[in-house]
Amino acid sequence: MADTHSSRASTYEEANTRWMGVGDENIILNPRFEDGLNSWSGRGCKIALHDSMGDGKIRPLSGNFFASATERTQNWNGIQQEVTGRVQRKLAYEVTAVVRIFGNASPADVRATLWVQAANGREQYIGIANSQATDSDWVQLQGKFLLNGVASKAVIYIEGPPAGADILLNSLVVKHAAKLPPSTPPDFENVIYGVNVIQNSNLDDGLNGWFPLGPCTLAIANGSPLVLPPMAKGSFGPSEPLSGRCILVTNRTQSWMGPAQTITDKLELHLTYQVSAWVRVGSQRNGPQNINVALGVDTQWVNGGQVEAKDDRWYEIGGSFRIEKKPSRVIVYVQGPSPGVDLMVAGLQIFPVDRRERFKHLKKHADKVRKRDVVLKVSGSDTHIPLRASVKVRQVQNSFPLGSCISRANIDNEDYVDFFVKNFNWAVFGNELKWYWTEPQQGNFNYTDADELLDFCKKNGIEARGHCIFWEVDGAVQSWVKSLNKNDLSTAVQNRLNGLLTRYEGKFRHYDVNNEMLHGSFYQDRLGNDIRAYMFKTANQLDPSATLFVNDYHVEDGTDTRACPEMYIEQILGLQDQGAPVAGIGIQGHIDNPVGPIVCSALDKLGILGLPIWFTELDVSSDNEYIRADDLEVMLREAYAHPAVEGIMLWGFWELFMSRDNSHLVNAEGDVNEAGRRYLALKQEWLSNAHGRIDDQGEFKFRGFHGTYTVEIITPTKKFSQNFAVGKGDSPLVVNINL
C-alpha cells in the first residue's frame, strides 16, 4: 500500500502544475466511440452510433462519432458503461461528458449518475453532474464523485431528459481528480476597520453623493433616530450620535426606486462588510412593506439586508456582503416598498468588520458561560504529603455538543469514520430519517439505513438528533403523499407518527417535528391550523423522552423577511398557545458572510423564550478555504459564547458529501483544509489544562470548561490519578481526592 500511496502523491504534485499527471488514465473504455458501440449499452432503451444527424446539421464536437440513446420511455433511460473493477473506492474522480439532446425543442436536464451495488445487494445512486442541454448545441457536463464502500458492480450512465427525447453523447472522460492548489490567504494587513464607505451618511452636506434610482424624488427630512442601530453598535461600540436627518423618497412608481450611491472604488475584495440603517415607510402603505438594502454589483443583485415594516416605526435593517471578484461598478440602493409608498432612510452605514477584535470579546464571554470554578480538595493519611504534591489537570473531553450530519454511505469509509468519531460527539442523519426516504412509496418502508446509522452511533458513544418527522415545504413532500385526499392524508400523518416514534422510542434525543414551517405550509393548507400543534403533541405522547424542536433557516442573518427572529418567536408562541410542547429552537445556519453582532442579535431575541437554541445544520461556503475558515470561526465562536445556545451541528464536513459546494473541512481524499484546521484549533482551545502545587489548605483551584477531566497528583512517594466531571453550575465544584 505504501507504494500506491507514494505514486498517488507524485501524481498530485504533477497535477498541481499540469491539468493531468501521468497515470491519470480515463477509466472509460472507447470514450469517443472510435470503436463503434463496444463497451456501451442502453439503459432501458436502444443506442445507436452516428457521424452526423439531422440532415448533417449535428456533427461531433470532437472526433468522428457520437452515440444516441433513443426510444427512451423514462427519464432514467440513457447510455451506460459498466466500470466495475476500474473505479476504486476512496479516490476522487472528475467526470467530463459532452452531451446534447435531440427531438425536444425545450431545454432539458441531462445528468451523469453512478449506480453502485454492494456485495449484500444494497444499491446506491450517486449524482455526479447535471446541466441544461438543448437540441441546438453541445454542452459540457462536469462533476466529481467518490465511492465510500466496496462495489461489487458499478455502472456510469447519462440520463435525465423527458421520455421521447434522445440523449447524444460525444465523449465521456472519468479520471482521478487533480488535486487543486491550496488557496492563498487574503491580505487584510492595511485595512482600517469600522470606517463607513457611504459618503455623507449623516446628510451634513445636503444630498451630496446621493442620487435617485429611477425618476423618484429625494429630499432631506428630520425626526429620525439619533442612536446607532443596535447591530451596528455591537460592531462599533460607543460612537457619535446620528444627526436626526433622513432621506425622504417620494414619487416612487416602482418598488425598486430609492436613494442610491456609487461605492465601486471604496470596497476591498474578500472583506466582510456589515450593512446598517434605520428605515421607515410612509402612511400610504397598505399592509406590511418589505425594505431591502441592495447592491448592484455589475449585473448581479446582492442582498445587503431586509426588514418588514408593519407600521409607522423606524426599523433597524442589518445585513452583510462580500465581493470576491473585481467589479467594474457597484451601487448601493434602498428599495422594496410598494409603488406610491414613501420611503425614509437614515444613517446608512457600510463598513468592514474587524472579526479578530470581536473574537477577543467572545473568548472572554465563552469563559464566563462555558467554564466553572473547581476546587480539588486533597486529603491523605500523611497530612504533610499533599503540601509538597504537584498537580496536573487535563481535560479529556469538552461536554458541549458538537456534531455533524452523516449519511449511510459515509460510514463505509474508514477515513471518514475516523475523523468523525474523533472530532464530533453528536450526529444527525442527512436524509435517512426523512419521510420520503423511510416510505418512498406508500407502505414500502426503508428503515434499514437509519437503523444502521443508529447502531453506528451507539457503538461509538454518539448522541443522535432525529431529523425530521415531517417537512412542511411542498417540494420536499413525496408524490404519493401529495396525491392523498384530506382524510387519507390525515391517516398517513398519524401512521408516520406512530411508525417512526414507536420504532425509535428513546433512541433520538431530539426531533425536528415539522421542518421549515416559516417557509412552507403543505400540511397546514390541507389539514388546517391545528395540525402542527397536533404533530408536536402526538410526538410527545409517543416518545416523552425526546426534546421537540422547530427548525428553520435564515433566522440569524437578516436576509429573509419570512424568517426574522420576531416571526419565529410569534410562530413558537402560537404553537405553545395551542398546547404544542415546543422545547427547543433549531436555527439551521446555512449562512453567507456572517457578522457576529447580527447573529448575536438574533440569538438574544430568541433567547427571551427561555428555550435551548441549537444550530442544527451549520455550513459556510467560500472557494477560498481561509475565508471559509474565518466564516466558520465566526459562527462557532458566536454560538459557543452565547448562553442560550446548547449545541452546534455542522451540515457535513467531507468534500462531495455536503449540500453546498466549497463548504467542506476535509477534502475528498482525507486532507484537512484550513477550515478543518480552524475547527480543530477551536476544539483544542476549548479544553482546559492546569498545573501547580497543592496549597496550605490542601486545595488546588482552577477554572475549566464543562466536561470530563483527569487529575494526576505526584508526591515524593507515589503517583495518584482520578477522573472527574465538571458540569454546569454557578457555585464552585468541590472534588474530593483521597490519597
TrEMBL record:
Residues 390-682 form the GH10 domain. SMART domains: Glyco_10. This is Endo-1,4-beta-xylanase 1. Belongs to the glycosyl hydrolase 10 (cellulase F) family. It comes from the Eukaryota. GO terms for biological process: xylan catabolic process. InterPro entries: CenC_carb-bd, Galactose-bd-like_sf, GH, GH10, GH10_AS, GH10_dom. GO terms for molecular function: endo-1,4-beta-xylanase activity. The active site is at residue 617. The gene is LOC103713685. Signal peptide: none annotated. Keywords: Carbohydrate metabolism, Glycosidase, Hydrolase, Polysaccharide degradation, Repeat, Xylan degradation. PROSITE patterns: GH10_1, GH10_2.
